[in-house]
Amino acid sequence: MPEYAGRVRGVSKNILPVRGSIHSYYTPSQARSQNAPPSAVISEMITEALIVRDEQHKKEMEEHLAQQREQLKGRDEQHKREMEERLAQQREQMEVRFTQQREEHMLDMDTITRRFAAQLAGYDARF
Predict the structure, then answer these.
(1) Range of 10's domain?
(2) Any idea of the CA torsion for 119, 121, 124, 125, to the nearest 10 degrees?
(3) Is residue 51 domain-resident?
(4) Is 113 helix (H, G, I), strand (E, B) or coil?
(5) Would you say residue 9 has pLDDT above 70?
(6) HSE on the CB side for 116, CA within 13 Å?
(7) Secondary structure element (H or E) that encloses residue 48, with its range
(8) In sequence order, what are the residues at sequence separation of 6 or more whose Cβ sits closer than 8 angstroms to the Cβ of residue 7?
(9) In the chain, at which residue ranges do the beta strands (DSSP E only) sit?
C-alpha cells in the first residue's frame, strides 16, 4: 500500500474507502501539496527535460547544417564547372577575334602596300 503523508481516517491497512473521492480519504487539515514531490525534484526534472530538448535541438541543427554543407558543396562544384566552361568559351571567342583581327590587319597591310606600290608606280611614271 502506498505511503501517504498524513493520517488516514479510520480505515484499516488493507481496506480502501468505498465511496467518495480520494480527498475524503485524508483528514481535512492535510494539504494536498504534502503528497507532491519536493520543488527541488521538480526543478531537477525540468532541468533534465530542458537538457534533453537542447541536445535534440543541437542534433537537429547539426543534421541541418550537414545537409546545407552538402548542398553548398554541390552548388560550389557546379558553379566551378560553369565558370570553367565560361572561361573556355571566352578563350575560344578571344582566339577567334584575335585571328579575325590579325587577318583584317594583314588585309589592311596588303591594301596599303598595293596602294603605296600604285602610288610609286604613278610617281615613277610621271618622271
Answers:
(1) 1-36
(2) -110
(3) no
(4) helix
(5) no
(6) 6
(7) helix 39-126
(8) 26, 27, 30
(9) none
Cβ burial, residue 30 (10 Å; 0-12/13-18/19+): middle
Rounded to whole angstroms, the Cα distance separating 6 from 2 reads: 12
Bridge partners for 26 per DSSP: 8
**Would you say the C-alpha torsion 82, 84, 86, 88 has a positive or negative sign?**
negative
Measured distance CA(54)–CA(59) in Å, rounded: 9
Highest mean pLDDT among 6-15, 48-57, 113-122: 48-57
Domain total for the chain? 1
Determine the Cα–Cα distance for residues 108 and 100; give it in Å rounded to an integer: 12
CA distance 14 to 12: 6
Please report which confidence band the pLDDT of residue 22 belongs to, taking 50, 70 and 90 as the band edges: low
